Amino acid sequence: MSIIMDVMKTAVRLAPGSWLPGGTPDPLMNKHGLIGKPASRIDGPLKVQGKARFAAEVSLPGLVYASLLYSTIARGRIATLETAEAEAAPGVALVMTYRNAPRMAPPPLMMSAPKAAGASGLPIMQDAEIRWNGQPVALVLAQTQEQADHAVSLIRVTYAVAPAVTSFDAAKAKARTPENILGEPSSIEIGDAEKALKDAAFKVDLIYRTPRHNHNAIELHAATVAWNGDQLTVHDATQMVNGTAWTLAQVFGVKEEQVRVLSPYVGGGFGGKGLGDHQILAIAASRLSGRPVRILLSREGVYRVVGGRTTTEQRVALGAKPDGTLAALIHTGVAATPTRNVCPEQFSFPARHLYAANAIKVAQQVTDMDMLANIFMRAPGESVGTYALECAIDELAEAMQLDPIELRRRIEPEKDPTSGTPFSSRHLVEAYRHGAERFGWDRRDPTPRSRREGEWLIGMGCATATYPYYRMPGGAARIRLTADGRAIVQMASHEMGMGTATVQAQHAAERLGLEYEKVSFEYGDTSLPSGTLAGGSSQTASIAAAIIAVSEVLTKELLKLAGNDSPLAGLKPDEVEARDGGLCHVDEPGRFESYVSILKRAHRDELVCEAEAPQPFEMWKYSMHSYGAQFCEVRVNAVTGEIRVSRFLGSFDCGRILNAKTATSQFKGGIIMGLGLALSEETLFDERSGRIMNPSLAEYHVPVHMDVPAIEVIWTDIPDPHSPLGAHGIGEIGITGVGAAVANAVYNATGKRIRELPITLDKLL
Amino acid sequence: MTARTIHFTLNGAPVTADIKPHHNLVELLQTHFGLTGARESCGQGLCGCCTVLVDGRAVSGCLFLAVRIDGTEVVTIEGLDAGGKLNPMQEAFVETGAFQCGYCTPGFILMANQLLDAHPDPDDDQIRHYLSGNLCRCAAYPQIIDAVKLAAKKRKTIAA
Known about the structure:
By secondary structure, chain A is of the alpha+beta class.
């Protein structure tokens, strides 16, 4: 399989770009109509009235409520389990443990099959084994949530404790190199980087540490589920409706088409809303009890069963020549992982694509710890990888007495440094130039502690943001063009707040030459044509490619339907374009017929077309990434060490921006989550017991309004000629580079390099 | 625990409910009245997601005992619009793009209305300070400042 893939990749790389699907730039790429307009969110009115119904708000007749009991040890076996008191408690419909849970196959591990969505691939409540601290050991169903929670408190469990690996330091000593990191090589070596480093005129060789993080979406994880015979309906909060449906079918031994997953609104995802134990247990309990079930995790419950970003230790070593180019670039390290997991926190990815160097070494290892499976969290890898890499760049620039932006300009590569493929669209230097101008970078004094106002030391820092362009294979879109000239576009995709439906309605309207108000976008339901997951900032391009494909089919079908009595008679699809609610000849605007007219003459109520997006070969042909230059100004109190970010600017290069309003929100939201990563966020993991010690919003500090300064975002708006609409996804780029921009600003203010996140005041005193 | 009957006004209509003394306001609104706009998220009274107005004052519904609303006037996000016509704050949130997922939005809107009642013309820092008890993980904070200022203008236009 991998040999075939390698041959295909090579073939694609060698083929002329114009041969590939999307090889000619999308004609809408430069069109200024609806694309780019700051349209307000389509679902806005519903959401401000509190009327958007989330997964835990769907009501079903006869619903019972679930509550979970979590293990308090990391490794071992359940020795005794007393459930009689809970079973006799008021309102209880079922107590489920490994003894009576239905036999279920483990959920296929993500990436093991196209639609596999399992986070860990471990069996769920099938035996007495305990594999992490917090693993569900019992589930209670009752008439009310209160009764279920009470009954859970009556269950008594004792454990036969086994030795567990819960210390990252101990696990690191036995770290191993996995076969691959998300399909990419675990390590790459070009030249002898260690030797080049040794011989370099200027060098830094540093260790950076980053902690665990949790997504903390404000919506708690929830599902409302019901069986009807072998038909399963799941009202879920998920970023992967199709993946969830397919995986659940494997777990419960039914057909994929017997599972319907609906998820029209998701109250924040950030990578954390996938398929976990909670949905599977609720579905199992529903099957066992014959009742529809609601599961709504408590905030603590989310921490126990939904993993987050894991801790990393990274070495970055840079060696530079006197002219400011890099002789050596080394980025290696290890991320804490359990044995079976596909989320290795790919921190070494930025260094593979960002800068030119004569010799490069990147290598990433994982551990075998007894802990909850990691789950992707916003810019997995890039968020913490850029912290290490971009701090080291700043340290090198200082060692060379060179402006850090100038250093980056000198190491700007001409092609991808490790794959050798050409960049599809890269304007990082330009993003830095615009950003520096706008931010007033020239007012920065490179000498630390040189700016002070009373007790406050003031500093500026910058860092590169980067995130790959991904487009997922396999999505299909349907268009229903109705006799009154409206279009309904359908694809089982997701809306966690990014503006999916709004932006794709703008896109489809422009593509079909319809007014924005005449187009609607339906999503979040597996009864629609299969979509792709909302992850890796891939959804916008993935949906757009499917809409392009189905629009082409629609044009062909319309021309057939128009027939010989139409002004369009005899025209081929590439001779017409969509405009003013119909089709017209590209060069003779007079040869026009509206959709309404075509359908009316053909006596049709609607025309329905469906098509799948072409394979994302552009990702093989080109090195495709989004970029940004992040600028931060901090004020650090010289007496107390208090750190306040006083100004922030993000200058982005992410292809064409499709909706200025929703894009601004995504960029700023990413930056703010990055401020949390830089200054306050940390999931505390007890290295003795393997237990998460701060499972609450009181003790895990997400940014609040007072933490957020004035933030400005600007963008190049240069379309990528190789992506649909010239656009890149932008959900993740905002968080990248922020940690380093803050750390570099803190150094400029105080003269202290903080190489371990979060940068809290105790580290500055 | 013994049930008791409470009488109160909910979004303008007089209502009655049989509750237990330990039930909180979110449970009451969701289970008795099917109102889900006030949502529990942190369960500790610190995120503002469950904000409800009791006699015009914003409270955290997850910590507010339902018995205490006996005889009061309760307004939830569902009662803010006038027969489908959005309240100026709701309009301002939509127009400025002051949310992404919209889950925390009801709490923000109710709290922001109270902010404007107290400070009709707030500056950025007043808004940040007043709304720091409401968490938004999508982090639409900058746009929320814009929304509150826009709503302040809309209120003045209506008053004038």
